[in-house]
């Protein structure tokens, strides 16, 4: 069997194991799924009045931003799950088996796609309740969800690498917060690009979280009619630019994580 | 005979500590080798090197002719490892655990399923097979872990302290299972802290201390070196000590150790009960009164006392010398 097929079949076996855990201990999901609901409600009702871009229904502007933010935050789940796995006896069993050395990572990132699907569904329902709408048809909407999940998958691999580097679940929760908070707040997820000063605005425009949000807004038809045209190339081609990031992240972090897994194997 | 497990000059260093200092091992096909030693002797390190979980800093090892450094994956498909801490997923049922391991060994779906049921049956876990393994007792988890090592019927089994922490009944069950495995032709390396376990299960024993083999041989050979059973006497009056010591020395193999303010005496003997009878007869003749008397099997501590002159100690370089240490006999290398 080729290395790739082996990685895929072994990865699927490990993913199934992770999914069984969600089935047996559904409590782990509750808190992770409550936070997107909380974010939608908080921003819509607490900031909704204060942050009100002209001529824009803020709730409709906001929900795609929350989508982007939540799938990025969701990757912490991957890192935490992996950090926890590495401390358990089962990893010794995995290491002594003639299985693909990337299977534990492939399995973890794959099972987290399921978690991301759940979280996107819950967010969409909450969004619809507070007044968010899909305006550009089913195909575009599915493309938007697809892009969100792809980006989430890529970020999962980054956090997988971090999860292998740090010694504990607590550390990874704090570490990821430090990276993810600026990444999602210095973006157009909550406020329009125009509201940033010139230097910060450039950062915002080339931040993949911004382009992801922009692409999703366009696909759902949530871009305000009064919004000024985008100047940066990245914001003019948000879907393409985001996909390039997805590729770049995967090319860098898949081998990096697999290497790190092997390294921690032979300590 | 063909050596299924072979290790030459294994060295492993952790910062200041040398966990292995040139360990040699050889296990002929179809036999059982027990690696006997206290905590911190290097047993688990040796196991992890042989199972490709750890790269040695020096030396080499082959499993079924395959080199652990050159072809770790080849080694993994030829071994079954069962660790000291049961490597099972607590959220998965026993069946799901075994099916998963089977799939990861590369068995097809159908084969992995039938194999999982077979093993649950064989290890007396069939009734509990569909319960999450976190509901299992310690002994059940350990059996499930061992079953995991056997899924692909590997020719070489490596068991790291398979019975440590088990109650006597679970230990007995584990021994039965291991004996069956050996009867079916497997080659087995097991580590243990219990001389009795090594004695019951192993063809050959290597005694390990501070990362090095300090004695090797069959159980009988080791006993001949270290003496067999121990006579333990507690005197009513410490004044009788010299007389008692003289009596014991006549039957003892090696020295007589004295402790507890001169009232407790221990001697290794090779004729067991008859030596004890002789000692008691002599005591009666010399009017030596005893509070307690007993005959017991030698423990790992006794082996260590005889071989190294110090009791088992986890910290290297600080032999736990006690006031009842006997005259050290020559360390056997």
From TrEMBL, chain A:
* InterPro entries associated with the record: ABC2_TM, ABC2_TM_bact-type, ABC_2_transport, Nod_factor_ABC_transporter
Q: Its topology with respect to the membrane?
A: Multi-pass membrane protein
TM regions (residue ranges): 28-49, 61-83, 113-135, 141-164, 171-191, 239-258
Cellular compartment(s): Cell membrane; Membrane
Q: Which UniProt keywords apply?
A: Antibiotic resistance, Cell membrane, Membrane, Transmembrane, Transmembrane helix, Transport
Residues in domain ABC transmembrane type-2?
27-264
For this chain, the family text in UniProt reads: Belongs to the ABC-2 integral membrane protein family.
Protein name listed in UniProt: Transport permease protein
